[in-house]
Design goal:
single chain, 415 residues, mainly beta, four-stranded antiparallel β-sheet, 7 helices
Length: 415
C-alpha cells in the first residue's frame, strides 16, 4: 500500500539520525527527491540538531603519570595529537574515531609527525594551528588551518594584511557564514574567521586596545578563495577569554566588571555588566588579580542549553545565569569544603591553609571537574544544575572541549 505524500513526509522528518536519513534517501527516487529538497533538510536540521553532534575533541590526553606530576596547573600533553571522543549515545559508524582522525593534515616536511593544536570548533569544522616543535604559539599570528575531519579537507588561513610586529595575538575564532538553502550556516565553503589582537591606539592613548579582522571564505575553485576585511576596534583593553557558551564567546574586561559577548553566528559584539566575580574586590576600581585567577573563571553551557559563567574563589563556587533582560545575576553558590567533606579520599589539607585550593581540570555542558592543587589525582565533578558533587573518574580528556558535528547537508547519492 502506497503512503500518501504528506504522511510520508512526516515519517521521514521523524528519522532521528542523519545516517539513517542518508540510507532512506538511497531507497528509491521518490524518497531521495523528498529528502534532497532544501526545505526538508532545513526542517530536519532544526528538529534534530542534537543528533548531528558526533563527539568532542581535546588537545592531548591526561595520563595518570601526568596527573601526579602536574601540581601547579593541569595542562594537556601538547606533544600528543588532539584526541576525539564520540558521543556516548552514538552507535553509528560515522562517530567512530577513525572517521575523525586528523592524520590528513600537512606534516612538517621532514617525516616528523605534525604538531597541531585545536584553537576552536564550529559545526563540522575545526580551527587548528601548527606548534613549532610541540611548543604553544607565541607571537602575532599562528599558522592556521580550517579542516573538516569527516571529509578530510583543509584550507590554510593566510595572515591578515598589514600585520605589525607590535600587534599581540589575543584569539582567533570560527564564525558562521551565510546560510545556504538547506539551512547550513557553516561549512568548508561558507565559514568566517575572526582574528583578535591588541595594539597601541594613539586615538585613545591606551597601550593595549583590542582590534579585529574578519576572514571570509569564498569559492574553493577561485584563485583567491577568501579575503580579510578590517573590523571594528573594541576600544577595550585587557579582554580575557572565558570560553564558549550559548552560541557566544565570552570575554571579561579586567577592572570594569564588563562582560563582552561575541555572537558566533553574526560575528557581532555586545556588552553587559557582570557582578564582581570575587567578594574580595573591595570598593576600589573593581580590579582583581585576573592573571592569577583566570583559570578559575569560565563560561560553559548549562544542561538547558543556556549560557552559564562560573567562578571558584576562596573555596566557594558561584554560578551566574543570564536573565531575560540580558543582565547577569548569581544563580547558585556552593561551599566546596562542605560539599566534598564526605567523599572518599577527602582531606582537610585540600582546602585549609591553601591560598588557591582548587584548579579547574575541564568543563562541559552542565558540569565542571575540579581538583586540589596539592593532589591532582583527586577529582570531583560539580553538576551546575543541581550543584551535587561526586567523585570523577580519572581524567582522560584535555582542559577544553571542542564539539564537532556531522557535516550538513548530508551527501545524498543519486538513485
Amino acid at each position: 500500500m502506497d503512503v500518501i505524500g504528506d504522511i510520508l513526509l512526516l515519517i521521514l522528518e521523524r528519522i532521528d539520525s542523519p545516517v539513517y536519513l542518508v540510507r532512506a534517501a538511497s531507497t528509491c527516487k521518490r524518497w531521495h527527491g523528498i529528502i534532497a529538497d532544501a526545505g526538508f533538510l532545513r526542517r530536519f536540521r532544526s528538529a534534530h540538531a542534537p543528533s548531528l553532534v558526533a563527539g568532542d575533541y581535546f588537545n592531548g590526553m591526561f595520563s595518570e603519570t601526568a596527573l601526579k606530576l602536574l601540581s601547579f596547573v593541569l595542562v594537556p600533553r601538547l606533544k600528543d595529537r588532539p584526541s576525539f571522543v564520540p558521543v556516548a549515545a552514538s552507535s553509528s559508524p560515522i562517530a567512530a574515531r577513525h572517521y575523525f582522525s586528523l592524520d590528513f593534515l600537512p606534516g612538517d616536511g621532514d617525516d616528523r609527525p605534525p604538531h597541531w593544536a585545536i584553537l576552536d570548533s564550529r559545526g563540522s569544522l575545526l580551527l587548528l594551528y601548527r606548534m613549532a616543535s610541540g611548543r604553544p604559539f607565541d607571537g602575532v599570528y599562528p599558522d592556521c588551518v580550517v579542516c573538516e575531519p569527516v571529509t578530510r579537507r583543509y584550507k590554510r588561513i593566510p595572515p591578515p594584511p598589514n600585520l605589525k610586529p607590535s600587534y599581540s595575538y589575543r584569539g582567533i575564532y570560527l564564525i558562521d557564514g551565510e546560510a545556504d538553502m538547506a539551512g547550513a550556516r557553516i561549512g568548508m565553503s561558507n565559514f568566517r574567521v575572526l582574528y583578535m589582537f591588541e595594539h597601541y591606539s594613539p586615538e585613545t592613548g591606551l597601550d593595549a586596545c583590542t582590534g579585529t579582522a574578519m576572514f571570509t571564505a569564498g569559492s574553493s575553485g577561485s584563485p583567491s578563495w577568501g579575503s580579510w576585511t578590517p573590523r571594528l576596534n573594541q576600544g577595550l583593553a585587557n579582554m580575557h577569554d572565558l570560553g564558549r557558551a550559548g552560541g557566544s564567546q565570552y570575554f571579561y574586561v579586567q577592572g570594569r566588571n564588563l562582560l563582552v559577548a561575541l555572537d558566533r553566528s553574526s560575528g557581532e559584539f555586545s556588552h553587559a555588566v557582570f557582578p564582581p566575580p570575587s567578594e574580595n574586590q573591595g570598593d576600589g576600581d573593581g580590579d582583581f588579580d585576573l592573571p592569577t585567577c583566570r583559570r578559575l573563571f569560565y563560561a560553559t553551557d548549562g544542561r538547558d542549553g543556556e549560557p552559564r559563567i562560573f567562578t571558584v574563589f576562596d573555596e566557594t563556587m558561584r554560578v551566574y545565569a543570564k536573565l531575560g533582560g540580558g543582565e547577569w545575576a548569581l544563580e547558585k553558590s556552593l561551599s566546596l569544603p562542605e560539599a566534598t567533606r564526605g567523599l572518599p579520599g577527602y582531606q582537610d589539607e585540600f582546602f585549609f591553609g591553601q591560598p588557591r585550593p582548587l584548579d579547574i581540570v575541564t568543563r562541559g555542558p552542565g558540569y565542571v571537574i575540579l581538583s586540589p592543587r596539592i593532589l591532582a589525582t583527586w577529582l570531583v565533578t560539580v553538576d551546575l544544575e543541581t550543584m551535587q558533587v561526586t567523585l570523577a573518574a580519572a581524567a582522560d580528556t584535555g582542559a577544553v572541549m571542542y564539539r564537532c558535528e556531522i557535516p550538513w547537508p548530508p551527501v545524498l547519492n543519486s538513485v
